[in-house]
Write a structure and sequence with these properties.
CATH superfamily of chain B: Aconitase, domain 4
Helix content of chain B: 25-40%
Number of helices of chain A: 14
Strand order of the largest sheet of chain B: 1-2-3-4
Number of strands of chain B: 7
Order of helices and strands of chain B: EHHHEHEHEEEEHH
Helix content of chain A: 25-40%
Shape of chain B: globular
Distance between the termini of chain B: 37 Å
Strand order of the largest sheet of chain A: 4-3-2-5-6
Structural class of chain A: alpha/beta
Number of strands of chain A: 18
CATH superfamily of the largest domain in chain A: Aconitase, domain 3
Mean pLDDT of chain B: 95
Structural class of chain B: alpha/beta
CATH architecture of the largest domain in chain A: 2-Layer Sandwich
Bound molecules: iron/sulfur cluster
CATH topology of the largest domain in chain A: Aconitase, domain 3
Shape of chain A: globular
Distance between the termini of chain A: 47 Å
Mean pLDDT of chain A: 97
CATH class of the largest domain in chain A: Alpha Beta
Oligomer: heterodimer
CATH class of chain B: Alpha Beta
Strand content of chain A: 15-25%
């Protein structure tokens, strides 16, 4: 019987010749990540275990969720984690971007097993790795042992074909899928994206697809690595392919040319509608950034729409590159300057207001359109503020209009 | 024990909003459980009470603050039709008992419910009916029996 990429990577990491869905394996992990929000509890867990980390080189700590510290409490947590980093001699400590972007830029190779104390660790599967989110105690266990237990998940195949029309992007595709399958449509499963659309898509777009796999409950998102992946990463790794006769629990055929711009309406990610049905909804804030859509490609799309124009008077536009590398790249290309001239604000690389802890939180009754991946009540400030999720093009066009608009008239 | 009833897809931002989780203090976390979603919960919950929910309980973020807050508030178990993956692992790891039960719709908010932690038998005393929870997978049962992941790793010789 054939195997999927996910099964092959987990079999390889647990030194088994074959695995089947439902088996529990104990796999070696290549990277263990935690960030400023989840590391404090993981550190406490590790102290409880009473051991040193298994290999300091394989631990990655990123401050991104509330960096620089917005309060004394936050600074205290940072201090606690910094002390841990020093005492355990962990060389991989970063404050210059969102954890998933940092991992992809600096560490992940195809075929790796990656665990991160962040639910969007499924992002890194876009480069052909098994990558999944865990909580702090699991991460403490992985830091101590270099191992983690996994139940081999069933796989779902999302076969995406065709090319999207102008003004439609990977974000629209994944929102459409989540709208179809629902918030628990892939619960506990591996979501594998295949098809000519995925083959032709940039690595940046593939990252957007896998990033949101957890929004349908998936354990991991995964895409077979190829030459494009290797060029993007600058690392070889080991490329696993799904066998022709691999078993998928379900297969979805999706024609991306039939998908228009999408929005996820508050307060759940699977509340997805065509942008045309919410046009005219007034906005107070527009946010372009995050691990979902804060890469150069996204900032380029937004810049093309904003260039030479001025955002609506009543709107704050925040643009946050997902890493310093992207910051420098988009600055070098002159994008950020154009965004600033159009009225946008650029903040330091990191999560920004995505999780409502600093810079750009919303007041009661306010509405934000954002490129992030979650729109839950209270996510970005007051529980009675509303968040719409959309592509960078839809967000940029809406910032100009002061209300949600179809970006196809702007690209 | 009183049942606190919740719906489907209760996410971690509803359990412990991100803005409140810049702390690892368990007492503080216990006080913020469902702070905006159901403000009376943390005020009125009694030690031993249980949460009864629908599908996909605990979806969203990986923050362990969510099950920690529920446990610290005094909740003795969570009963749901299904749990989100990371929340499930987190709860087991910190020793918050979970039960998967298809028939939770029959329990109403405020019912008095008793759970036999050994057999997974659920007794709704208000309605005088008995429901059954699905047994957890064997591997996970072992972690539960040890009282969480840290003890499990120790007893199995991993650390
Ligand atoms: S950008 Fe948002 S979704 Fe991504 S890691 Fe940061 S807080 Fe989480």
């Amino acid at each position: 019987m054939g195997l999927t990429i996910t099964e092959k990577i987990l079999a390889n990491a647990s030194r088994k010749s074959e695995v089947a869905s439902g088996d529990v394996v104990i796999a070696d992990v290549d990277i263990v990540m935690a960030h400023d929000s989840t590391a404090p509890l993981a550190v406490e867990g590790l102290y409880k275990i009473g051991k040193k980390v298994f290999d300091p080189d394989k631990i990655v700590i990123v401050f991104d969720h509330f960096f620089p510290a917005p309060s004394v409490d936050a600074a205290r947590l940072h201090q606690k984690v910094r002390n841990f980093v020093t005492e355990q001699k962990i060389p991989n400590f970063f404050t210059d971007g969102v954890c998933h972007q940092i991992l992809v830029e600096k560490f992940v190779s195809p075929g790796n097993v990656i665990v991160g104390a962040d639910s969007h660790t499924c992002t890194e599967g876009a480069v052909g790795a098994f990558s999944t989110g865990l909580g702090s105690t699991d991460i403490a266990g992985a830091m101590a042992t270099g191992k983690c237990w996994f139940k081999i998940p069933e796989s779902l195949e999302f076969n995406l074909s065709g090319s999207p029309e102008k003004g439609v992007y990977a974000k629209d595709v994944i929102l459409n899928i989540i709208g179809q399958v629902g918030a628990d449509g892939a619960l506990y499963k591996a979501a594998e994206f295949t098809g000519d659309y995925v083959k032709n898509a940039s690595v940046s777009s593939r990252l957007t697809l896998c990033n949101m796999a957890v929004e349908m409950g998936a354990k991991n998102g995964i895409i077979e690595a190829d030459e494009k992946t290797r060029n993007f990463l600058g690392r070889e790794g080991k490329i696993f392919e799904s066998d022709k006769d691999a078993v998928y629990e379900d297969e979805y055929e999706i024609q991306v040319d039939t998908i228009g711009p999408q929005v996820a309406c508050p307060p759940t990610v699977d509340n997805v509608k065509p942008v045309t049905s919410v046009e005219g909804e007034k906005i107070d804030q527009a946010y372009i950034g995050t691990c979902t859509n804060g890469r150069s490609e996204d900032i380029e799309i937004a810049t093309k729409i904003l260039k030479g124009k001025r955002i609506a008077e009543n709107v704050r536009l925040l643009v946050i590159p997902a890493s310093t590398k992207i910051y420098l790249d988009t600055f070098g290309k002159g994008y950020l300057q154009e965004i600033i001239k159009s009225g946008g604000i650029i903040c330091n690389p990191g999560c920004g207001p995505c999780v409502g802890r600093h810079e750009g939180v919303l007041a009661e009754g306010e509405t934000c359109i954002s490129t992030q991946n979650r729109n839950f009540s209270g996510r970005m400030g007051h529980p009675k503020a509303e968040i719409y999720l959309a592509s960078p093009a839809t967000v940029a066009a809406s910032a100009l209009a002061g209300e949600i608009v179809d970006p196809r008239g702007y690209v | 024990m009183r049942a606190w009833k919740f719906g489907n897809d209760v996410n971690t931002d509803l359990i412990t909003p991100g803005r409140y989780t810049i702390t690892t203090d368990k007492t503080k976390l216990g006080k913020i459980a469902f702070i905006e979603h159901r403000p009376e919960f943390a005020r009125e919950v009694k030690a031993g009470d249980i949460i009864v929910a629908g599908e996909n309980f605990g979806c969203g973020s990986s923050r362990e603050h969510a099950p920690v807050a529920i446990k610290a508030a005094g909740v003795s178990a969570v009963l749901a039709k299904s749990f989100a993956r990371i929340f499930f692992r987190n709860a087991i790891n910190i020793g918050l008992p979970l039960f998967v039960c298809e028939e939770v719709d029959r329990i109403d908010d405020g019912d008095l419910v008793e759970i036999n932690f050994e057999t997974g038998q659920i007794r709704d005393k208000t309605k005088d009916m008995v429901l059954k929870a699905k047994p957890l997978p064997k591997f996970i049962q072992k972690i539960v029996e040890k009282g969480g992941l840290v003890n499990f790793l120790r007893s199995e010789g991993y650390v």
